Every structure is written in C-alpha cells, then in structure tokens.
Amino acid sequence: MVTLIDTGMSTLTGGRVKRLEPWLKDETFMVTYGDGVSNIDLHKLVQFHRYHGRLATVTAVRPPARFGGLIFEGDLVTQFTEKPQIGEGWINGGFLVLEPAIFNYLDGDQSSLEADALERLAADRQLVAYRHEGFWQCMDTLRDVRLLEGLWHSGKPPWKVW
User: Which of 7, 22, 26, 83 could lock onto 11 through a cystine, CB 3.0 to 4.6 A?
Assistant: First the structure.
C-alpha cells in the first residue's frame, strides 16, 4: 500500500518527516530526498543500520569533482588531473534509515532534517554512515538530467538492477 501525504510547499525536510509520525511511530523506516539516483543495495544498508543499533544511518557517497585540477611547481603546471576527488569528499547521498526516535529531534513544519535532526544525532553519537562506493548521481540541474538521460539511453544505466 502507498499513502501520499501532502506536507505543503513551505514545510521543511524535517517537518515533512515529522508529519509521517502517525504512520511510522513503531518501526524502522527509510527516507530519500528523491533527487538522487544510485545502485545502493538497500538490503545491505538496512543490515548495516541494524548492526550499528543507532537512531539514524545516512548513506555517504563521493561524487566526482566537476572540474579538472592543476598541480603546480611554482608557476609551472606540472600535472593536469582530470576531475580528481578532493580530500575525503564524502557527502550525504540522501538515502537514510531511521528509527522512530528521530521524531523526538523534529519539532514541526519548520524543522530541518539536516540541521535539527542529523546534526544533533551526530552530536549525540546516534548517526552512522554507510559508505557507498558504487554509482550515485544527483539530479539537481539540467546538466545532471542530461547526464542521467544519456546513461539511460546507453542501454546500460549503472543504477538498473533488473
């Protein structure tokens, strides 16, 4: 069964989750922002979450850098690197597993899932990260949409599992 909950245009991410409390107050549940495409193994994600026994698990991904890099020796360019990964580069990939206690971290429609819940969960040592090394791509811009459409039309989109 699918239930659609209209949370309104001005409700923030945490408020949207908070409005689900009457339906999800007794069981582990998953949340996604809906603007990311990935080949995350959701069964492994949930197993990881249960193994760690925390209130929340976020999927960490490392998107490729958008631009090539330059390595210098003084003013001389000694190497050009094509789209290097800068530093650790882990970000919130937008696939989360949550326990009902998350609702205690959310006050209402103006709650931010990230600032009001995830940051506090991290401070309380209740947030773990499932590191996904596979395919992940956001779909925030027209450039992203065109990239994903091209992958789909190639016949071998990396997120397709069937």
Answer: 7
Residue 119 one-letter amino acid: E
Query: Could you tell me the pTM of the whole model?
Result: 0.84
Helix (H) or strand (E) holding 119: helix 119-123
Spatial CA neighbour of 30 closest among 95, 92, 93: 95
6 burial (CB, 10 Å; 0-12 / 13-18 / 19+) is exposed
Mean pLDDT of 106-125: 93
Mean pLDDT of 49-68: 87
Cβ 92 vs Cβ 132: under 8 Å: no
Residue 90, CA distances (Å) to 64, 82, 85, 130, 134 in order? 10, 19, 10, 11, 13
> Which single residue is written with the structure tokens 């599992």?
161
